């Protein structure tokens, strides 16, 4: 059982297409194994910005996290722009992480850069090590294209609790073949709230891809999300959500996405 969404050019159009499709299922407005594909998550048109503004305003009006907050849980772009790699890893641990309570949602970037080893107090940085490995491969004559993965799910921390668990489970990066290589990313979600989280997730993953691609000197390719369970959550009433979708559909190039 799966629900494929037609490939979209941007994060905003992919959000609109996915929410529209899952919302149309009726009943509890959810679906299994929804496949969302964005041709280039690093691009953003004027119409995209309009949709992002509409969704962000809707979320704020209903007391939910702004889109930028959701995106920053995956990749803290402003921190990176100020400090660059690898310094921003340490700044994140020292300045940002202490402000996030241990049980709080949204520690995705923490898990990407801090994987605890059995020896107490020791850890590795999976993201940094993956980037270094990919950079070496791209620069070499023979390039392995499918050996770059980061796990977010941790059975030690996640197997027991039923609530407040991380929804993003796994990241699989790939490189295309040929002289003009591009970076591809497939992200697996255990559970996915499409109104509160999906747009911010898409933007955050796109920024993560841009970071990795720039570090290894390749282009940004497509982003694919597999939401093993997706739901069109409704922070307000369903009528208000439908009004939001109608307004988004009327925005510039979004008509085709809907």
Could you please describe the fold and organization of this structure?
The chain is of the alpha/beta class. Helix content is 44%, strand content 19%. It has 11 helices and 9 strands. This is Thymidylate synthase. Keywords: Signal.
Second-tier CATH architecture: 2-Layer Sandwich
What count of structural domains? 1
Approximate shape: globular
Rg calculated over all Cα atoms? 18 Å
The description of the largest β-sheet is:
7 strands, mixed
Examine the coordinates and then state which fold CATH places here, giving the name of the CATH topology.
Thymidylate Synthase, Chain A
Q: How large is the count of helical segments?
A: 11
Low-confidence stretches: none
The average pLDDT value, as a whole number, equals 93
Question: How many β strands by DSSP?
Answer: 9
User: What is the class in the CATH system?
Assistant: Alpha Beta
Distance between the termini: 22 Å
Helix content: 40-55%
Helix- and strand-based class?
Answer: alpha/beta
Q: What's the order of the H and E elements?
A: EHEHHHHHEEHEHEEEHEHH
Organism: Mesorhizobium plurifarium
Keywords: Signal
Signal peptide: 1-24
InterPro entries: Thymidate_synth/dCMP_Mease_sf
């Amino acid at each position: 059982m799966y629900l494929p969404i037609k490939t979209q050019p941007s994060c905003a159009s992919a959000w609109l297409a996915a929410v529209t499709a899952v919302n149309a299922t009726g009943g509890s407005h959810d679906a299994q194994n929804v496949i969302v594909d964005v041709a280039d998550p690093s691009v953003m048109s004027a119409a995209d910005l309009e949709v992002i503004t509409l969704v962000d305003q809707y979320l704020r009006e209903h007391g939910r996290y702004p889109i930028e907050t959701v995106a920053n849980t995956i990749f803290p772009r402003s921190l990176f722009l100020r400090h660059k790699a690898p310094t921003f890893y340490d700044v994140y641990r020292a300045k940002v992480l202490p402000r996030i309570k241990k049980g709080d949602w949204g520690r995705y970037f923490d898990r990407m850069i801090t994987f605890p080893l059995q020896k107490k107090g020791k850890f590795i940085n999976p993201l940094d090590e993956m980037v270094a490995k990919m950079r070496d491969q791209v620069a070499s004559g023979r390039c392995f294209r499918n050996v770059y993965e980061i796990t977010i799910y941790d059975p030690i921390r996640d197997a027991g609790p039923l609530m407040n668990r991380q929804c993003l489970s796994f990241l699989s990066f790939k490189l295309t073949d040929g002289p003009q290589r591009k970076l591809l990313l497939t992200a697996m979600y255990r559970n996915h709230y499409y109104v509160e989280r999906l747009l911010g997730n898409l933007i955050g993953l796109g920024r993560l891809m841009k970071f990795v691609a720039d570090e290894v000197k390749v282009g940004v390719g497509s982003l694919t999300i597999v939401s093993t369970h997706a739901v069109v959550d409704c922070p307000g009433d369903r009528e208000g959500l439908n009004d939001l979708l109608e307004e988004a559909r009327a925005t510039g190039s979004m008509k085709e996405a809907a």
